[in-house]
Design goal:
The complex is a heterodimer of chains A (330) and B (286). Chain A has 330 residues and is mainly alpha-helical. Chain A is built from 14 helices and two strands, in the order ααββαααααααααααα. With 286 residues, chain B is mostly helical. The chains are: A mainly alpha (330), B mainly alpha (286). Chain A: InterPro entries: ABC_transporter_permease, MetI-like, MetI-like_sf.
């Protein structure tokens, strides 16, 4: 390294903002490495996503146009037949209602509690990290373990929850066979596992709110409650939207919890009269138990559309909801 | 207004006042709620199922945990399941971190045609529920003869959109262009720039991505359930098998659950701080 008179040109490296790029054709040619490396580096993602993500999804829609089962492995083209059958399928509608019911029972309370918990964690605590770790604990446990443990806790005969209810003078509840209570129990599992995780995300957003805004509100005489609703909540909006959307995408595909909650283990029925069978569970059942692959594909595709529709609705709702209270809403 | 000093204002405004008794009380209640199900499952696992029939269940662990654990290993191929889960999660973690840091480097620091469009595509795929494609995916695996084999669980998870997204955000922040240019001037090829400059700089985020990926993979259920079988399961599938008997022996099942949860709890106790920091950082940036 003797004298370097000229700065090396930015060979394919995007320059730091103020300096204009100076790429000559010759340098590009002399350095195929620079030109093609980026594509090589990003290729694995696109190949993997294309092969195991996009293609199966598209093929699902194709498959949903066929009547294909164990007796007819090549499948018969039936157009939209699966979809018209789906519209008349009471078990599908039942699963749809169950999914939405469990989704509402879990996502709603969960986000409210997560915001409250984040507010608690946002105070000046001793050992703040310790509390955060503790709150996150349920998140690391597998869904299967959660499902098994809660199926036991909510057991109809010897479950601890019923034991406590009885101790307190209430009646026992049949958490499995009663439709509403089974949804409540499953929503409890979801909430137990995810509330702490979401609280941490909200907490991070709370910490990111500039102190000056709170100071200004305080000088203006706003109470703590008022500041929470008029300052904190509106500024949490992007984060809440993020949390709601991810909860929607995950919550509508709920599968493990209802599968393991069944008193008849290994069954895909979601209870003796399908009282807590979700759409994904129904898809699994039609696809891999009764092996009607075309019909299961139609179920998958409808669920896919449903997720998109509800995610968009939630997006609009959260935007509206969290923006009340601020006047300069851009 | 004059009565309050600026310092008090600052304190109050930022929630910087000391947490009150009530805050601690609520948090402790929350923690008990978080821990109790684990404690309960260990309690049942350390006794025999008859405890569940007692009116007031005992609140101290009994001495049957080891014998129940031994029964777990007799009932399902649990060692095999553990080995399989380690192989699958380990492989998936390695490839996800490698491919995500590479792609993150390219998207954050390299200039190429279509960069923005392609990155936008990655972000859009975050919202795609790929789980719904399992039927054709299963058919493809069966076609390859991979059904029941571990590669059927590994290959679909080689790299994720969330990994690429995170690493792109992080790399854009922490790696200065000057460093890359300097390495180029010194004659480094692109891959050496990645290896000697970028990878060391993004190590904290890569470590978090690794932990997160490992946990997600370890806990994955639906796809392994579809494509693997009872003879060659992952831990989660073995657990589900345990519960599938006609009569559920909860001491046995919850002993298995405890066994399967202990490794991940140990990892969590050791790395909990980093996991919390990672989630909170990702939240601010994402």
């Amino acid at each position: 390294m003797t004298t370097v008179t000229r700065r090396a040109p930015h060979q394919g490296v995007a320059p730091a903002p103020p300096r204009p790029p100076k790429l000559t054709w010759r340098q590009r040619l002399s350095n195929m490495d620079v030109k093609w490396s980026p594509y090589v580096y990003i290729a694995p993602f696109f190949v993997v996503f294309g092969v195991v993500g996009l293609f199966p999804l598209l093929y699902t829609s194709y498959l949903s146009l066929f009547d294909r089962d164990l007796l007819d492995l090549d499948g018969t083209y039936i157009g939209l037949g699966n979809y018209t059958e789906l519209l008349r399928d009471s078990q599908f509608w039942n699963a749809l209602v169950n999914t939405l019911s469990i989704f509402v029972l879990s996502t709603g309370p969960q986000i409210v509690v997560a915001v409250g918990l984040a507010a608690l964690l946002n105070t000046r605590l001793r050992a703040p990290t310790g509390w955060r770790v503790g709150v996150l604990l349920p998140y690391v446990v597998s869904l299967v373990a959660v499902g098994i443990i809660f199926a036991n806790l909510f057991g109809p005969n010897y479950g601890l929850v019923n034991g406590i209810l009885e101790l307190l003078g209430f009646d026992r509840v049949d958490w499995q066979s009663n439709r509403f209570f089974s949804h409540l129990a499953i929503a409890t599992m979801v909430n137990w596992r995810w509330t702490g995780y979401n609280a941490l995300i909200v907490l991070a957003a709370m910490k990111a709110i500039p102190k000056e805004i709170h100071e200004a509100a305080l000088i203006d005489g706003a109470s703590a409650v008022r500041r929470f609703f008029s300052v904190t909540l509106p500024l949490l909006r992007p984060t809440l939207i993020f949390v709601v959307i991810t909860s929607t995408i995950g919550g509508l595909q709920i599968f493990t919890e209802p599968k393991l909650f069944d008193a008849m283990p290994g069954s895909n029925n979601g209870g003796s009269s399908n009282q807590f069978q979700t759409i994904t569970l129904y898809m699994y059942q039609t696809g891999f138990e009764t092996q009607r692959l075309g019909y299961a594909s139609a179920v998958a595709w409808v669920l896919f559309l449903l997720i998109i529709v509800i995610a968009v609705i939630n997006f609009l709702l959260t935007r509206r909801l969290a923006s009340t209270g601020v006047e300069d809403d851009r | 207004m004059t009565a309050i000093s600026m310092r008090t204002i600052r304190r109050r405004a930022t929630g910087d006042k000391r947490a009150s008794f009530w805050v601690y009380g609520l948090l402790i209640a929350f923690l008990i709620g978080s821990v109790f199900p684990f404690f309960w499952s260990f309690l049942v696992a350390s006794r025999d199922s008859s405890m569940l029939t007692e009116r007031v269940p005992p609140l101290l662990p009994g001495g049957n945990f080891l014998s129940n654990a031994v029964r777990v290993f007799d009932s399902v191929p649990f060692w095999r399941a553990l080995g399989n889960s380690i192989v699958v999660s380990g492989a998936v973690t390695l490839t996800t971190v490698l491919f995500s840091t590479l792609a993150g480097f390219a998207f954050a620091k390299l200039r190429f045609r279509g960069r923005n469009g392609l990155f936008l595509f990655v972000v859009a795929t975050l919202a795609v529920p790929t789980q719904l494609g399992i039927i054709p995916l299963y058919m493809a695996m069966a076609e390859f003869g991979w059904a029941g084999e571990l590669q059927a669980v590994i290959v679909p998870n080689l790299v994720t959109a969330i990994g690429v997204f995170w690493m792109r955000q992080y790399t854009a922040q922490v790696v200065p262009y000057e460093l890359i240019e300097a390495a180029r001037v010194d004659g480094c090829s692109m891959i050496r720039v990645y290896w000697h400059v970028v990878l060391p700089a993004v190590r904290p985020a890569a470590a978090f991505l690794g932990m997160f990926t490992f946990m997600t993979s370890w806990n994955d259920f639906l796809w392994p359930l579809v494509v693997l079988n009872a003879e060659n399961p992952t831990v989660q599938i073995a657990l589900e098998r345990l519960q599938s008997g006609y009569y559920i022996d909860y001491s046995l099942v919850l002993a298995g659950t405890t066994l399967a949860t202990i490794p991940i709890l140990i990892v969590f106790v050791v790395l909990g701080r980093q996991i919390v920091a990672g989630i909170m950082q990702g939240a601010v940036k994402g």
